[in-house]
Amino acid sequence: MNTIEFEIISNQYVCKFYFERRINVIKGDSGTGKTSLLELVRDTSPDIVKNISLDVLVADDLGWRALMTASKNVIIIFDDSNVIDSAEFAKCCYEYVVKNNLYLLIFNRESLKIEQNSEESGYMPHISYSMDSIYRLCNDGINHWLEPFYNLNAFNQSSKLDICITEDSSGGFEFFDKLLNAVSVEHSDGGKSAIVDKIERMSIKDKNILVIFDRAAFGCEIEKFVNKLRDYNITVLDSYECFEELLLRSNLFINNQKVTHVFNNLSAYANKYCLSWEEFFEKFLAYITTEKPYKYSHGKKLRECYFEECGSFPFCTFELSQKCDLNIKESKLDWLLKDTKYSYLLTFHEKNLAKKMSAF
Amino acid sequence: MLYIHVGQIERECIRTIDPYFNRNKSKDWFNRDDVKRIIKNIDLSVAVKDEYIESPVFGGMSPTKLSTGCKAVILMAVLEKPYIYATKCGDNCVTDILEIASKKDVHITLHHIMQFPESGFEAVMAESEKKICTFGGFVDEYYRIRDNF
């Protein structure tokens, strides 16, 4: 199943939308019809038309855990829930959402970030959910639909760029540092939650800043990012899921049938195996390169194969090159990205240019 | 004055807006001009008399069908010492919240960034007792307090 359809029609209320990820957050103004939607979900009267891909259950603060652990193949709605920022909720999401094929529609304005002073003991990571699965419920009186809650300035080929900040401090940073060699590239030095503080510390309000973060897992951070940095000239990569997604869309895999097949059925594959698409892309890239010289491991140093000409670095020996399906005798970064979704990044790549010294 | 709490929700704070409102509502509330205005502003509905409300979509309806945000703001208006979990309120409630808080003390807890106006309002961050009067000031103080729990 690629996309979940959600359509409810009554004589006074029509609601139709689609979503494709496991965890979806809906926020926005009061009085937009959320309560009416829930009443119609619960109503089994024959005059109400429901075209919904899966059965729908509504969780309350007492019974939500039982619903998540015992239900399978359903959409669960959390309405103004008081549990979504608890470690127990995060634990249940990681344990049951994929296993039980659950899709969550969360009507809350709070972030799913776990409260630091949560009473539950032990470490529990924040829930990885996409900033692109945060929506606003809109209406024209009768008709109701979802729109993206966050519309950030999308970076494009004509954008000016002075500095780039990356969430990634390992392979992703290394790659962008070499790719965007015409500008200064720095990493947040603490992952996604450190990006805002890093930018504020740098005093770069007058600069054009490209921030590269994993949209597929930035749901917990986006509210702070948008509100704290609203006086900065910031752009982000349009529909950039994560670094691994960029590599998978590169020319390195353009003739790989597995990759093509997965991208043609992305939500089906990603949702089948992982709670977040970021995790899926990491695992998928590692899987399809596992026996290749350009093997990829998330969080590890990136092999030179991704940015150096084949045969031009010590690791790429003659013996190894005989076993490799790559033999690119030109600028590897150019070759990787030209005519791809991310080819405009090459605007800031100057061939034969040593890394520009940071001016900051 | 508006007092904004951003830490843990205290016991005195009304968090479960709908059941509290439905249990405690009084027909007199809906004859008040300020409550009529709140219902009109937030839910685009008209409080005709007592508990009879007319919605442009649903026609005649009970106050129990008002949105949670609208109920929360009505509680701020009618309770003597309101202390409300205002993360249940959408951004279209801000004008009414500030209007009520300009006439009496209103305590709210926020666990999200409410879109206050850029300037022209006053509030006190309860945990730090810092006075704020701009949206930027609110955002900075909100994260300063919450990031240092």
Short summary:
The complex is a heterodimer of chains A (360) and B (149). Chain A has helices at 34-42, 64-70, 87-97, 171-179, 195-202, 222-228, 243-248, 257-264, 266-273, 277-288, 318-323, 332-337, and strands at 4-9, 14-19, 23-27, 49-52, 55-59, 74-79, 102-107, 134-139, 143-148, 154-155, 163-166, 184-187, 208-212, 233-237.
Output the strand order for the largest sheet of chain A: 4-1-2-9-8-3-7-6-5
Structural class of chain B: alpha/beta
Q: What value does the average pLDDT of chain A take?
A: 90
> Which term fits the overall shape of chain A?
globular
**Residues in helices of chain B, as a percent range:** 25-40%
The oligomeric status of these chains comes to heterodimer
Q: Which H/E pattern describes the elements of chain B?
A: EHHEEEHEHEEEH
Strand count, sense and barrel status of the largest sheet of chain B are:
5 strands, mixed
The domain tally of chain A reads 2
Task: Count helical runs of chain B.
Answer: 5
β-strand number of chain B: 8
In angstroms, what is the radius of gyration of chain A?
22 Å
- Quickly give the structural class of chain A: alpha/beta
Radius of gyration of chain B: 15 Å
Indicate the overall shape of chain B: elongated
Number of continuous helical runs of chain A: 12
Write down how many β-strands of chain A occur, each being a DSSP E stretch of 2 or more residues.
Answer: 14
Calculate the terminal CA-CA distance of chain B, rounded to whole Å: 25 Å
Taken as a percent bin, the fraction of beta residues of chain A is 15-25%
- How far from one another are the termini of chain A? 48 Å
Q: How confident is the prediction overall: mean pLDDT of chain B?
A: 96
